Amino acid sequence: MRFRIAPGCLTAAVSLLLAPHAGSGQTIPSPFRYVETRQELGILAGVTNAGTGRFGFGPGGGTRLGARWGVRLSGPLGFEGVAGVISGKRDVINPARLEGDRKVGEANVLLGSVDARLRFTFTGDRSWHSLAPFIVAGGGLVFDLSGAQAVDEQLEARDRFDFGTSFLGTFGGGSHLYLTDRLALRGDAVFSLWKIKTPPGFSAPERQISGVAESEWVSALHFTVSAVIRF
């Protein structure tokens, strides 16, 4: 007696044998990973390039060091506070001299800054291939920590530049690079604005300098890298 196997039964049996292998072959690791920690604390280092204003007496930037604390509020939104210093130089300008020959020296600059920022992370509470890009915006204060320098004594009191304290506006972006659940690197490129005051001697009638403003807004670019602990 001969047994005949229907083609449909044979196809079903082969499918059952291959089913586990086909299912395992469809498993694709996701490039996204949840970030379980909500807070971070880090130190930052980098450089600042700043505008010096019409007459060139403002701080021109320098080396930037600081610290940052941040917390994720909800989904992609976070809050962070940043404090730091900028160490650099500024030109000492004498308005009594002819234009093009007004620089009489250089002075050291040490600016302190504190600001608060809102952070929007594009990947929310996850990372993509260990990256989590974001944008930040906020404001705070920037102030002079160095005071008057010896080279300023070459100028009349009315001609000496004093940075004082100014509002600081910030906007920028960057990304986290998660090395582990607790450790990360972070890069930031931040644009900021602050105001510098013009010494009153620049607007003295005998100087014959036209269009002198009492103050002016200048911009600065900060590029920093941070080592971050998450918790």
Summarize this, please?
By secondary structure, this protein is mainly beta. It has one domain: Porin (Beta Barrel).
Give a structural overview.
This protein has 231 residues and is mainly beta. The protein has a single domain (31-230), classed as Beta Barrel (Porin), CATH 2.40.160. It has one helix and ten strands. It has one helix at 7-25; strands at 32-34, 39-50, 61-74, 77-93, 103-121, 126-128, 131-144, 165-178, 183-197, 215-230. An eight-stranded antiparallel β-barrel has the order 2-3-4-5-7-8-9-10. β8 (165-178) and β9 (183-197) form a beta hairpin. The longest helix is centred in the first third of the chain and has 19 residues, at 7-25. It is elongated. Mean pLDDT is 91; it is low at 20-24.
SSE layout and pairing:
Elements: H1 7-25, E1 32-34, E2 39-50, E3 61-74, E4 77-93, E5 103-121, E6 126-128, E7 131-144, E8 165-178, E9 183-197, E10 215-230
Antiparallel strand pairs: 1-6, 2-3, 2-10, 3-4, 4-5, 5-7, 7-8, 8-9, 9-10
Which structural category fits the helices and strands?
Answer: mainly beta
Task: Show unreliable segments.
Answer: 20-24
Number of helices: 1
The largest beta-sheet arranges its strands as: 2-3-4-5-7-8-9-10
Global morphology = elongated
Please, what is the average pLDDT? Answer: 91
The CATH C-level name is: Mainly Beta
Structure characteristics:
231 residues, single chain, eight-stranded antiparallel β-barrel, 8% helix
